[in-house]
Every structure is written in C-alpha cells, then in structure tokens.
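Quick one: co-fold with zinc ion.
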Amino acid sequence: MNEIERIMALSDAFGPSGFEDDVAAIVRAELPEYETYTDHMTNVRCEKEPDSDKPRIMLDAHLDETGLIVQAVKPNGTLRFLPLGGWAASSFPTSAFQIRARDGRLVPAVVANKPPHFMSSAERDKIPEIADMILDCGSVSREETVQQLKIGIGSPAVPDIACRYDEDRQLFFGKAFDDRIGVACEIETLKRLYDEELPCNLMGSFSVQEEVGERGVRANAAALKPDAVICFEGCPADDTFSEDYMIQAALRRGPMLRHMDRSMITNWRFQKLALDTAAENNIPVQESVRSGGGQNGAAVYETFGIPAIVIGVPVRYIHSSNCWCALEDYEAAVELAVELCRKLDRSTVESL
Ligand SMILES: [Zn+2]
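Sure, here it is.
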C-alpha cells in the first residue's frame, strides 16, 4: 500500500477499544521489515536493534477508536449501548454505525432519533441522555436481532463511514483519525528509518484501549522499557470554532506539540528539543496548552518517569463519525519524528 492507501485502510478498519484486531493486522502487514510481537491485549510492538545498548526510543500510537458496545437487547429488537471512549451525547443521534456480529459480519445500524412529528416542543430543544438512546439495526424483534443477526450483549460498533480522499486538496474525510493518522505516522517513521544508522534503538508501540484510560500502553512500556517516548496522536482541531488568537490546532499548519493537557505537563526539555528541531528543519508546528484531553504519553511519564512528547496531527471533529485531516500535517509530523530520532543519542536523552 502507498501512504494514502494505508491511511484510508487504517481509517476504515474496525477497531473500537478492546476490539483492535483488524487494525493490529494492518500494522503487522505494513511493517514486514520488523519482527513484530502481539500480546494478549492485542498491543503490537517491535524493536529495530534488539541487542543494542543505545538509548531506547519508543514511538507510540493507539490502535483503538471511540465506538460503542451493546449493553442490552430490547424486546422490540433495538439495542441499548454504552459508549467506548469519550463521546458527546450530541454526536450520537442520527449517526450511522456498523455493529460487529458474533459471526464477524458488520451489520449497519443507526442511533435512532425520534421523528420531529412525535416530539414535544421541549424534546426538540434537548439532547436525550445516552442511557435513553437506542441503536436500531432495522430489526422488529429481539429474536431477529439475537438469532438472525447474531447481535447481543457485548457486540461492539464503530461509525459507518468509508474514508474518502480528495486528491486535489490532499484531504481525508472519514472516521477514526484519532488515532489512525498517528498509527500511519508511526508506521511511516519506522519504515523511513529502518535502513538508517541511528544513535538510538528505535522501538514501535501500537497500543490498545487508549480511549478508555491509556491501558495498553502501560503493557507496551513495561515490555519495551523505553528511555523516552514520542506519541503520535490525532488531536482535536479547533480552527472552526475558536477565535483566531486561540487557535492552537488548525488544519494545514503542521502538527501540534502539546505543552499541557489534563493528563500531563510535558517535560519542557523534550518539548524544547522538538520545537528547536522543527525550527531548524523548517517543519511547521503549532503549540498548545489544553484544559482537557489526555494521551498515552502521560501514562508512561507518570508510571515510569520517562519523558514523553505528543506530536498531534490536527483532526476536525474527533470522537464523532465524520472527521477531516490533511496530508501535509501528517507529512510534517513524520518529518519531525524522523529528525528527532536522528538526534536522540545517549547524552541528549540523558539531558532531558
Ligand atoms: Zn487519541
């Protein structure tokens, strides 16, 4: 696959938290140069120079996407669900989903919205609670849903949208760029540096269950024992609803380097190294200080005391069904990571 095809395949892959197998399979297939290991959580990891004593630099991206899980089947065949990861209730009504049935088939469904004809005037202005929403796969009975469609308690679902790429504008439209665009960045960085003599031992971590509390990365970091971590994220773009002076993650302005979010105050020495590296190489970057959000770097920083930075590719409308991201931001994120890895020798890593 070329880079565009790879990004599209990753976006389309079914992989809500806890069900990342299809995404992990793409990662393994796209990294034939590396010997990959997949653990029982479905975390994937690899190492460029397993026997070296160079500083250990772990690249990380998470395989999972926000989705749903079926909690109960109602007598009329519709489904109650819980969100997997952080969803705004307002993103659900009328959104199309695909549910993975027990036999592996993907079944289309919609989060039902009561037609306006049946709404009271109070209901029209109000978003229902997620607990009151239903997922409807067109079934008329519990039996049809469970016996015929093989959907039941525990069936996972993700937004039903096929990725599209606008060649002229070099722009993607699809789901799950948080964090499949990060996964694509990591695969490409590992590939570009595979044949290069580096001052560090490059390691790949593709982590599961980030969206439900950074769970997989802890297992990857415990196994790989990194000295520093570079996290690739699909981060929320803010350029369509922020005042100009507050925009910190716009499309087409390069990756975002995050000084702070709710989970981490980034190690300022590592952050400065990344900003300086971008400036030296004329790579566009954006800086942010966020009141919300969290990511895998924080889990590793906090658990092992290892410095981590986040290279975030701006994605409009993450944690919903329909998202935009630009090829040039992906490309700049890869370039920045490549240049950083070329610099991370023993003394640089120790100075962080
Ligand atoms: Zn993410």
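If it helps, DSSP finds ten helices and 17 strands in the chain.
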